[in-house]
Amino acid sequence: MDTTTTQSPPPPPTDRIEPTSPQKAVVRPGDRVFAGLAKGSGITLLVIMAAIAVFLTYRAVLALSDNEANFLTYQDWLPQNDPPMFGIATLAFGTVVSSVIAMALAVPVAIGIALFISHYAPRRLAGPLAYIVDLLAAVPSIVYGLWGALILVPYLDGLNKWLDEFLSWTYIFEKSGTGPARSLFTVGILLAIMILPVITNVTREVFLQVPRMHEEAALALGATRWETIRLSVLPFARSGIISASMLGLGRALGETMAVATVLSPNFIISGHLLDPGGGTFAQNIASKFKEANEYGQDALIASGLVLFVITLLVNGAARYIIGRRKEYSGANA
């Protein structure tokens, strides 16, 4: 006879754990205040930008409605004539050319200075050198203008003669006239000196944010100092370099007093960059606004609207490039 008994399964537990509903996140009053201030600041900025755009557009329409010349292609500036005739061709040419010269000179030098301070210079030298660069950014533009008019212009005569003698075959360095070096080339050099500390400071801070492990890994694999910078530092800092360059370009496009002090303005478009003359949007507004009548001021505001649009397009293009090119992101370096 089989005496084994079949054991029944244990009874289910009586104290079941009921699923709990997810708890709502607790929002503190300070978080609400901070979020409101941040959102309000962003909205205020958009409102201010929109108000500036509306004001510039309204005054520009008043001026352009009576202008007898093509505003985009006419070279002269005669809003006081009857009928008024004025255009921005010369101003756009001078602004773009001087800014391109400034960027071509300043960006490579600024990157080199930032690399030297962050990766090559001893600590005792890096600190004072960075402090001196910061001080250069605080110098008023009128001081740069006085220095450019009294020191830079006379000493550039020799450089202009050398460029005309050996590089006149390029056409742009052919000097067809005489006179002091109050040209777009001189303005470009002065602007390069002015934007150099801005680009250097931002680029230096970006270089200092490169993860140390990236550099140590490259060195451990046998890379030289330059290979480490080229393969680890520069790819990580590309977006920062572009942002720093756009900040410098924004100052170069809108610089007023330094350009007005150095440049001998005229309304002639010339491919000879060493010839005196030329003009920029900001310089023309600063030099003519006080003596202009109400209609002349509207005409100057119309040119300011063009500069406003150019600045927006430049910054928008920079953001588009950074957003489209994933390799510019430091996270992917």
From TrEMBL:
Residues 1-23 are annotated as: Disordered. CDD domains: TM_PBP2 (cd06261). Residues 92-318 form the ABC transmembrane type-1 domain. Part of the binding-protein-dependent transport system for phosphate; probably responsible for the translocation of the substrate across the membrane. Pfam families: BPD_transp_1. Keywords: Cell membrane, Membrane, Phosphate transport, Transmembrane, Transmembrane helix, Transport. The gene is pstC. NCBIfam families: phosphate_pstC. Signal peptide: none annotated. It is found in: Cell membrane. The keyword Transferase does not apply. InterPro entries: MetI-like (IPR000515), MetI-like_sf (IPR035906), Phosphate_PstC (IPR011864), Phosphate_Transport_Permease (IPR051124). Belongs to the binding-protein-dependent transport system permease family. CysTW subfamily. It comes from the Bacteria. It is a multi-pass membrane protein. One of its GO terms (molecular function) is phosphate transmembrane transporter activity. The chain crosses the membrane at residues 42-65, 85-117, 129-156, 183-203, 299-322. One of its GO terms (biological process) is phosphate ion transport. PROSITE patterns: ABC_TM1 (PS50928). Its main location: membrane. The keyword Transport applies. GO terms for cellular component: plasma membrane. It comes from Streptomyces spongiae. PANTHER family: PHOSPHATE TRANSPORT SYSTEM PERMEASE PROTEIN PST, PHOSPHATE TRANSPORT SYSTEM PERMEASE PROTEIN PSTC. This is Phosphate transport system permease protein.
